[in-house]
Amino acid sequence: xxxxxxxxxxxxxxxxxxxxxxxxxxxxxxxxxxxxxxxxxxxxxxxxxxxxxxxxxxxxxxxxxxxxxxxxxxxxxxxxxxxxxxxxxxxxxxxxxxxxxxxxxxxxxxxxxxxxxxxxxxxxxxxxxxxxxxxxxxxxxxxxxxxxxxxxxxxxxxxxxxxxxxxxxxxxxxxxxxxxxxxxxxxxxxxxxxxxxxxxxxxxxxxxxxxxxxxxxxxxxxxxxxxxxxxxxxxxxxxxxxxxxxxxxxxxxxxxxxxxxxxxxxxxxxxxxxxxxxxxxxxxxxxxxxxxxxxxxxxxxxxxxxxxxxxxxxxxxxxxxxxxxxxxxxxxxxxxxxxxxxxxxxxxxxxxxxxxxxxxxxxxxxxxxxxxxxxxxxxxxxxxxxxxxxxxxxxxxxxxxxxxxxxxxxxxxxxxxxxxxxxxxxxxxxxxxxxxxxxxx
Length: 441
Ligand code: SDX
Prior knowledge:
The protein is 48% helix and 7% strand. By secondary structure, the protein is mainly alpha-helical. The protein starts with 9 loop residues before the first strand and ends in a 28-residue tail after the last helix.
């Protein structure tokens, strides 16, 4: 792994002066400027100089790190992987090129791509003993539960790539994770069907190999449709990385203690599973099926706006995007292409588009800047590709693994890196004595 020289964040002349009204003292906090996006107030000295913590539940205004990997402009609906617009990568790049770009910082030459792709291909097989882990799960286990368990178990198999201070170990662990996630994901799917596992094939490209392991059986040849492989490639690219989202921040925090890389990725999978995050794609399809018909859309839009109703429009809204999620725009276009090429008439697509139209004309969604996000259309495409909704978030995890490992490597290579250890605003009881059980009311 090339160890990029740390680009020290640009310290600007600008600073923030805080005045402590308790004693009239002032604190000067420097402002750091990046290459794009909001500047940051460096509060690292705040506690030492003021005795106060910052307070930001959900980290809505907090930068947790410096990163050179992905940039999002939520107001303009811009997403860049190492400076390259997501629209161009989704249109022109292969997934292996995007993996190389995210990991090493530059698009690969043909030779670099071929070497990288060969290395990934030759790591797609799992240690045969890992297959035994699947038998410990109930047949009806959610595939994400299986992914959490089996990916975590990888930490017990690869002792030759766990010295995280060794760049070579980190590169091997990173390649293994990118390579083996589709194999584990496909095995989780086959396990849920009661079908035999299908081994990876070295003559197939990443997306085709994944589809083949999912849908082939020993009984007959399975040829991957180029339409589906192209759609899979685009979906993998769109989901590959997304700055400091919940699951990536989970991987960084777990990794900051020096934990085993495979265990850190398992932690990321657990976080991604939540319906507020990567689980939303599965939730969108359930929501569309529950709405069922155009005439019921107003009822659900009304529920989504009702503070007393926990129902939310799944696939809508985003912590960062206050404009269209550029991935949703590409995803909707891909939806039409895939359904058209497959000759699938999917009523849920019409329903989704009408729901989007109504929501985007509604003051509530306009004022709160709630737009469709990456999950709003992905489920419709995946269902048309024959992938069950229980596997939607698994596919998201397969795609996001490269982002997780790229961010994990960047965190470890960061000379300022230390264990992540947030503080709190304590509102519990002040110190009080132990009371014997017989003396309690
Ligand atoms: C992903 O972070 C990432 O980058 C994530 C991701 C990635 O690639 O890693 O982009 C992938 O997780 C996409 C998001 C998938 N989740 C969903 O689609 C679930 C539905 N969306 C919401 O749960 C919500 O929009 C979040 C979780 C996505 C964002 O929540 P925030 O930023 O914490 O915003 P919020 O909950 O504070 O909402 C702001 C307001 C609230 O109203 P008020 O309290 O201000 O009156 O908007 C409302 C919310 O009630 N609101 C919604 C809504 N989303 C927010 N109301 C109805 N339906 C919704 N979907």
